[in-house]
Amino acid sequence: MVNDTLYKKLSARVNELSKLPKLDDQKSIPELIKENGFTRRDFMTWAGGMTAMLALPSSFTPLIAKAAEVADRLPVVWLHMAECTGCTESLLRSASPSIDSLIFDHISLEYQETIMSAAGWQAEQNLENAIEKYKGRYVLMVEGGIPHGEGSHFLTIGGHGKTGEQSAIDASEHAAAIFAIGTCSSFGGVQAAAPNPTNATSLSNVTSKPVINVPGCPPSESNIVGTLLHFLLYGTLPALDAYNRPKWAYGLRIHDMCERRGHFDAGEFVEEFGDDGAKNGFCLYKVGCKGPYTFNNCSRQKFNEGTSWPVQAGHGCAGCSEPDFWDTMGVLHEPLADRLFHTTFGGLGADATADKIGLGLLTVTAVGIAAHAAISAVKKPKE
């Protein structure tokens, strides 16, 4: 009964969007997908995966497919701040286009500095026109940390010398939804790392509007497109965690879903890169994996068209989707000494447990959550 009510509500929302004009009258998203070699079966398989990722029943798959097909009705303004453009590149630079990237390519991108042809005063005018024309309707996506306050002059744009901070504030004012794409926009990123000479900060610190954070360095294309699809379906913000990340994507730790988790539980660790443990796919915790402190769905969604992800490739998680990870995750190839996992055996950390208690013992013990997880659970979301 609840699912029927939700289905009707979301279906009405999609039908309403389908009545809006699309970007290109000559080509639709289904046609674009077909032209790039994807069959209808491929598309529905993708829609089924996206349905599961959004934690919806499988019966909603046709509705997800329809929502994707009308994604080009939603105006999007994408701003670049202080960043490397890696988040955009993760969508655009695949060896062969994925369905996610094709949908992103065809949505109504009214302003996107990386892919638009306009420059100078024309680019500035395009941004102003898009904000005015679609006032209250467009989705704002911002990539990059934002130098602000006394440091805002470190990012100035155009002939009028407008600061990036002011551009972000102005664009946020009339947006229907605001997404901070990537860790830099979500939490400041490397630009905000100590000593932070430009006074860079997150998007949520320069606007009073609600911001959905989609962190990662870069986030997967599925998390970006999935967040957009969620807004298409619901027209509202998704359930968020303490750091304003969508719970459907960032609700579990890397550690919880890692294919090496069994080795952690068995006390089987890589002691140094290249040893027998590394060759046998043992847990990377001792060589600095930050998976126990990091919330993301990398092991499920993966990268490079679902080919792999860092831990599968043999390198520990760097914690890139966490606030201030450049400063707080410590030395890259060393465990966090001040945040060891604790077990029921006298508070011994996972390292000590593996060495002193013996292999296999952790399979029958309750491994506690990390300090960060405890903080995340109790910290109130930003108003």
Structure overview:
This protein has 383 residues and is of the alpha/beta class. The protein is 39% helix and 8% strand. A 5-stranded parallel sheet has the order 2-1-3-7-9, sandwiched between helices. A two-stranded antiparallel sheet has the order 4-8. It has a two-stranded antiparallel ribbon with strand order 5-6. Strand 5 and strand 6 form a beta hairpin. Helix 3 packs across helix 4.
Helices, strands, pairings?
Layout: H1 2-18, H2 29-35, H3 40-53, H4 61-69, E1 75-80, H5 86-92, H6 99-106, E2 108-112, H7 120-133, E3 139-143, E4 146-147, E5 156-157, E6 162-163, H8 164-173, E7 177-181, H9 183-187, E8 200-201, E9 212-214, H10 221-234, H11 247-250, H12 254-257, H13 261-265, H14 276-279, H15 298-301, H16 310-313, H17 325-328, H18 350-357, H19 371-378
Parallel strand pairs: 1-2, 1-3, 3-7, 7-9
Antiparallel strand pairs: 4-8, 5-6
Provide a compact summary of the structure.
The protein has 383 residues and is an alpha/beta fold. Helix content is 39%, strand content 8%.
Distance N terminus to C terminus? 33 Å
Percentage of residues in DSSP E strands: 5-15%
Mean pLDDT: 82
Strand count:
9
What's the tally of helices?
19
Provide the structure class. alpha/beta
Q: Can you tell me the residue ranges where pLDDT is under 50 for at least 5 consecutive residues?
A: 342-383
Inertia-based shape: globular
Q: Major beta sheet, specifics?
A: 5 strands, parallel
Instruction: Supply Rg.
Output: 22 Å
